[in-house]
Design brief:
single chain, about 350 residues, alpha/beta, Rossmann fold, five-stranded parallel β-sheet, four-stranded parallel β-sheet, 15 helices
Amino acid sequence: METAVQDERELYESMRAKLERVVPEFELKYKASLAHQINLLKRERNAVILGHNYMEPALYASIPDFTGDSLELCRKAASTDADIIVFCGVRFMAETAKILNPGKTVLIPSPKAGCSLAESITAQDVRELKARFPGVPVVTYVNTYADVKAESDYCCTSGNASKVVQAIAGDRVIFLPDEYLASNVAKETGKRIIFPTRTPRPGAAEAPIDYEIIGWKGRCEVHEKFSVEDIANIRRQFPDTVVLAHPECSPEVVAAADFSGSTTAMIRFVERSQAPRYLLLTECSMGDNIAAANPRKEMLRLCSVRCPHMNEITLEDTLEALKQTRYVVEVPEETRLRALRAVNRMLAIG
């Protein structure tokens, strides 16, 4: 994958033009130097770098060959001839890249880049749910680890969750693991949802029959922090603000917002809208990245919520990942093939 590499000064000027409103100049100079080294090494090693929308602005604006949400990035990686994929995102994303790109070496810059939502459920949890609700298809959010995907019938994203649920034949689905996303899907599709206890009492009836979605009590530690009061406070001060909420926020927050959608959908909304100002209820680095890309649009800050796992990914560690081929992500082949089946079924739906 032969591409031209900007010299360090050119890269710095490019980053400054994009980020001068969101990143201090002294920080940009230091990070431009790191980014230049990464870009040289990327070309030398025939690597491609994927940057999730939640990456900090200096990284997001300098080294990725592709930016976007997790599934979009994995699909783009599959279209390249790179030998190495460096996923600047959390571990479940890198695992999904490996599921879709088994012949490539996949690296994650930090082994600490986990996810509270992915860690809220295990493959054994899914097996037990399937035993309790036999024959009910399992829809699993892509924000899960590979072994959980392997126990599932379908995957979904935050952008197509309702479409996947509605496309499945039958009266019921198990939807895992995000409690709030499941509740928002239930509301959007007009389906009734239950959240069964993890360990049913011996002899107890499983659940009343008036439900179509079986949920799970997992949450994103970032999105669960936003509240209706946050929205009310902003609107008291700035009544013309358009509020965008990620579907991992609570149903009450989503209902109070003006728009709810995936990270990609929120980016497109801001690009196309002519509203005077915006507030994003999602990971705060994404707000910085959207503000940098739309300098003529006012982005309000409610940025007390930074994902500690995404924050583990740095330019320094990305450079070392490429230098040392370190933190290689592997998925056992049997697990990969079963997880791929669930991902492909989602892709077939659209």
